[in-house]
Amino acid sequence: MNKIFNPTVLILALAAAGLSYGGYLLGTRAGTHGMAGAVSASVSASTAASASAQQQATKAASKAAQSGGDKIDPATGRRVLYWHDPMNPGQRFDKPGKSPFMDMELVPVFAEESASTSANAGAASEADTDDGAGVRISPALRQNLGIRYATVRHAEVRDALSLVGTTQFNENATAVVQSRVTGYVEHLHARAPMQAVRRGQPIATLFVPEWLAPQEEYLELRRSGNDALATAARQRMRALSIPDTLVAEAERSGKAQRGYTLTAPASGIVTELGVREGAMASPGMTIAKISAVDKIWLLAEVPESLVPSVSPGMTVNASFAGAPQRSYTGRVRELLPAVNPASRTVQARLELDNRDGALVPGMLMQVRLEGASGQHRLLVPTEAIITSGKRAVVLVADQHKGIRPVVVTPGREHGDDTEIVSGLEAGQQVVASGQFLIDSEANLRAILPKFVPKAEDSMPAKGGMK
Prior knowledge:
Elements: H1 7-66, E1 71-72, E2 79-85, E3 88-93, E4 107-110, H2 111-115, H3 126-130, H4 139-145, E5 148-151, E6 153-168, E7 174-178, E8 183-188, E9 195-197, E10 202-207, H5 212-224, H6 227-239, H7 244-253, E11 259-263, E12 268-273, E13 280-281, E14 286-291, E15 295-303, E16 315-320, E17 328-340, E18 345-353, E19 364-381, E20 385-387, E21 392-398, E22 402-414, E23 417-422, E24 429-433, H8 435-445
Antiparallel strand pairs: 1-2, 2-3, 2-4, 5-24, 6-15, 6-19, 7-14, 8-10, 8-13, 9-12, 10-11, 12-14, 15-18, 16-17, 16-19, 17-18, 19-23, 20-21, 21-22, 21-24, 22-23
Helix pairs in contact: 5-6
């Protein structure tokens, strides 16, 4: 038998299902809101408790400060000297509270932290602190930091400069070989520049046609026995610049000499050749230039700021890389009257002893110039000076005030030492190594003089509780 579909039953079933799903959604949302409320209530309670505890601690510290007694940190029970802002540690505050510089709570500085920087912990007076007491370094800390002291001393120093120079020939010791007559270069004995020659060594042989006839006449008169005419002929040859050596050779051989040899007037190096074989030489023409090497010049570059320290006559010691153990001595001849616009230096012309001929032109040499007399100067090790660009500071070790910075005016360096123009006295002890570690320690504890305000400069904190 067929069943008849009833629409009413279907509608009722759908309505029942919708009601059931709606109830499920309502129950889920209610449970979620309940959990969130519980968590929020827990966080609020914790924050309120923390804020209450902080306010109570601040109130307790503030009351202790106002009562005139010791300032005690209620959280740790330690005695507080003052409060400060870590972002601005130079300013002190006499009570806790908000920083006037940053929106943050002030940080206490405890008594034992300040006392630990003194060798007599807890016994240093407040007057010593305000007077710029220095850093106290225990023997153990001194050894750990590698601190080394040096004594300020007077010493006799000479004005010495370290310069660089280049060697060149001594122009004052240059000889010139010239032709006095018109002739032709038959043979050139010195065939290339930079050839070493000795005094009297042949340089060039000239053929002088106009000397042949006077020689023939003189020899004929000698053979005829007419001494008066022979003497007159000899005088005419001298007027023609015929050398006596050439005449003597003609007398010995009985023949007119066609060649005349020019010799080196001094030992040295041929720096210039003015002719070649077969060339014609005229009167006054330079055949060759010869420079002596027993005395050689050295041109040293002197910074223009140091020119007043250099004067003629100063002693010179020079060396070069090829023989650093060998020292060449000499003196300053003169300062050349010109400044190099590129390097801002002035050339000093020095003269060195080069008897062994080891020095040649163009060599680069290290030069040390020393003054004629020494002067007493106040010296400290160069490593003891701390330079910031605007000033120079030396850490002085004082048995009463500890290690403290002193501004000095440094002078010139003398080896490993530096001259002190002002700021120190002889006999003082200065820190020669480990200065930067001491400086860091002092800055962390804010005890370097003039960097930490005095106690009376303390100001009330922003929002400090009364």
